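Fold this sequence, please.
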Amino acid sequence: MLAVLLSDEELRRRYDISFSYRYSLEYEGGFHSRVHAPVEAMGLRLIDLEAQVTKIRWCPLRIVSRAIAYLSLLRYWYILWNTVVLCRAWRKRQIDVLHINNGGYPAAGSCTSAVFAARLLGVRPVLYVVNNLAASYRSFLRWPDYLFDRLVARWVTLFVTGSTCAAQTLRRVLQLPACKAINIPNGLPIAKTSEDSGIVRQRFGVSGEFLVIVPAVLEERKGHIYLFRALDALRQRGVPKLPVVMVVGDGPKRESLHRSVEEAGLQDKVRFMGHKSYAEYLELVAAADLLVLPSVSSEDFPNVVVEAMSMGKPVVASRLAGMAEQVEDGRSGFLVEPRDASGLADRLQLLAENPTLLRSLGQGGYEKFSREFSANVIVRRYDRLYDDLLRCRQ
């Protein structure tokens, strides 16, 4: 969504936009590959504790490092240090609206630092976008965050979430009044590809297959194992032609998922594609018949669902958080309960055997995308929101 906002010509004409981010070669490369507009970008040397711990390859040492960092409250010292870095970077700038974008909450500590820096510099208003479900205090690991959370809740002017479910969760966790957390879904441009889908299918040897794509990092929360169980259930039912599943992404569960596929004897039906560039990933989505996202937790409003809808592809997803707001069950795809391999198998079989229904759901998804999730629609909503915030400031 940030790339969409920064790339919008009308928005750049109306506002003088500057983008600050925690510098890393990977992030900088990703930014320049997605944003080609002339936007001032400041890569700042902010410290991220989780990024440092993840660099430790030996698992026991990583666990010990996390424990030491938690007991010494190191994360909070880093937040204060990053606050100083941001104050120094922004002190000579006239900031009328500070737009903070975070993957979840509390997630990146640098976003908390941005709130603190804005307070010290007298920046108003502060808009804080949360792109996943806020973590509750059920885990004792969250308890030390409470004081910082209260300050963030007080000093942020308005929170924006991608789904109404995420807004409700954030209000509950941060004890916010209803008016202080609103929902604006992420918007995307229509995804386009340069290569013909038939050629892509030929290249991977799946020309006559019912092709399913699963674009998700290989983590337990993404629920890949339940899709593999659904395939196994279809085989046990005697379905003559099983779908071919392309798994796009990499992650810590790679080896265990490979073993699961081998143990089930599904090697010829499940293909692990690894990490793909954005352009390569879009070509695979365009070539696929169906996108499946069987997530089981820590999911809200994934962009991959919206991208598939923009390409007229039906989606089968878990009835989880914001995904239930993206997919209209029976109109743009199907929703299944998390971990319901049998229900997932039913939907796969139904769509594989009904090409007319498949096309109808794809068309329904495209229409919903055009109404609710297209880049132009969402950018104009943010434009009006910035305007409202500036008027209230006067």
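The chain is about 50% helix and 15% strand. The CA atoms of residues 239 and 349 lie 8 Å apart.
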